[in-house]
Design brief:
Elements: E1 2-7, H1 15-30, E2 34-39, H2 45-56, H3 62-86, E3 91-94, H4 96-99, E4 101-103, E5 112-115, H5 118-125, E6 129-133, E7 136-138, E8 144-146, H6 152-162, E9 167-172, E10 193-195, H7 196-204, H8 212-220, E11 225-229, E12 237-240, E13 252-268, H9 273-283, E14 288-295, E15 300-307, H10 312-321, H11 323-326, E16 330-343, H12 352-363, E17 370-374, E18 377-383, H13 387-400
Parallel strand pairs: 1-2, 1-9, 2-6, 3-6, 9-11, 10-12
Antiparallel strand pairs: 4-5, 7-8, 11-12, 13-15, 13-16, 14-15, 16-18, 17-18
Helix pairs in contact: 1-3, 2-3, 6-8, 7-8, 12-13
The protein binds aspartic acid (ASP) and magnesium ion.
Length: about 400
């Protein structure tokens, strides 16, 4: 079998953990597999590099940021090759340039466009364990790029797709995908399996276990994906096309605190107003999430929506600048909000989910600011300080008062 194994930052944080990971890799290699390893930077390395840059130039160019950040992964792969050598096995480390991972040109948030796997295949044929840097690519100018925070997962899945790997294993510090973040929700349970679509929603909604682009790619190329612990031999969670949706109409609860709400108040109630507001924002590359329009008095309406916290100031600036053009009375905002979502592929066919969710929040005395729904998720906006309580209340409701989570 050809197996891609990705180890996250905590799984290679120090010498001992690198050795543990090396042993797992060697075990698989000794079983006769061809093994390609993808690594993140060790521990908090990426954050520390960002801090270093900030001290020197808070407005550092994105190109130089990528030059800097990509060094974290390069350290990991070299150290891992050394660890494997010390245990008596052949290994070679490659950075994105050597592994020919080509990306789009946008620094700090590039997308993998193509991978020329020739070099990797040659190394595998030479019986090497091939260790590749995650999180980085090379753009058309020959510069190194990075794929956005958490992007090593995407490197691993892209390699697995391109190499036609039999399996892509994502090793992390938890033993799989949970029904909620176990640090926030006490009763969170590990899932044995989850569908690509549900995982994509959860990843996009702020469950940090997988980079959302990696799930998109896994779905597109039907990659056999498993999330499992680097510390134990537990089974992990299989991410695949169809999960056991019959039994499990809700698969998880996610909390996203990186949210702020903007309200544009006293707009005239006529066609084209929403278009004006949202085209201004989209022109400035600000993505908007939940949108709510409400009818006010005297033929007036208000439009509220959420943006990521990092986009709040920019969005407010643009709106204030165009206040005349939009024709509103005032603009207000609140950044002490959070989005709590429940995700499940079975939701589309179970009308009771929304009612259960609202009942859970009512019982916990939590007020809902906004609501949005899709085929497989319901999100509510609540006060940030109530977000964890809300997540627990919702999770308990689905866990104990219905058999929504299966078994
Ligand atoms: N080292 C990068 C980060 O911290 C990429 C990754 O870990 O996936 O975001
Ligand atoms: Mg990660």
């Amino acid at each position: 079998m050809l197996i891609v194994k990705k180890f996250g930052g905590t799984s290679v944080a120090d010498a001992q953990r690198i050795k543990n990971a090396a042993n797992k890799i060697i075990k698989s290699y000794k079983e006769g597999n061809q093994v390609v390893v993808v690594l993140s930077a060790q521990g908090d390395t990426t954050d520390e590099l960002i801090e270093k840059a900030d001290e020197i130039n808070p407005e550092a160019s994105k190109r130089e940021m990528d030059m800097l950040l990509s060094t974290g992964e390069q350290q990991s792969v070299a150290l891992m090759a050394m660890a494997i050598h010390s245990l008596g096995y052949p290994a070679v480390s490659l950075n994105a340039y050597q592994a020919k991972i080509y990306s789009s040109s946008n620094y700090t948030n590039a997308r993998i466009k193509n991978i020329n796997t020739e070099r990797i295949h040659t190394e595998l044929e030479k019986k090497n364990i091939v260790i590749v840097t995650g999180f980085q690519g090379v753009n058309k100018y020959g510069d190194v790029t990075t794929l956005g925070r958490g992007g090593s997962d995407t490197s691993a899945v892209a390699l697995a797709a391109k190499l036609n790997a039999d399996l892509c294993e994502i090793y992390t510090d938890v033993d799989g995908v949970y029904t909620a973040d176990p640090r926030i929700v006490k009763g969170a349970k590990k899932l044995d399996e989850i569908s690509y679509d549900e995982m994509l929603e959860l990843a996009t909604l702020g469950a940090k276990v997988l980079h959302n682009r990696s799930v998109e790619l896994a779905k597109k190329y039907n990659v056999n994906l498993v999330v499992r612990s680097s510390l134990t031999d537990a089974e992990g969670t299989v991410v695949k096309e169809e999960s056991n949706v019959e039994k499990m109409f809700v698969s998880g609860v996610a909390v996203d605190k990186d949210v702020s709400r903007i309200s544009v108040i006293g707009l005239s109630d006529q066609p084209g107003i929403a278009f004006k507001i949202f085209s201004l924002l989209s022109k400035n590359k600000i993505s908007v999430d939940i949108i709510l329009q409400s009818i006010g008095r005297d033929n007036k309406k208000d439009i509220s929506f959420t943006v990521a916290k990092c986009d709040l100031n920019e969005a407010l600036r643009i709106l204030e600048q165009n206040k005349q053009k939009i024709g509103c009375e005032s603009i207000s905002h609140n950044d002490n909000v959070a989005k709590v979502s429940v995700v499940g592929a079975g939701m589309a066919t179970n009308s009771g989910v929304a009612a259960l969710l609202f009942e859970a929040l009512y019982n916990a005395d939590i007020n809902i600011n906004m609501i949005s729904t899709s085929e497989i998720k319901i999100s509510v906006l609540v006060n940030e300080k109530e977000a964890d309580i809300a997540a627990n209340a919702i999770h308990d409701k689905f866990m104990f008062e219905s058999d929504a989570f299966g078994d």
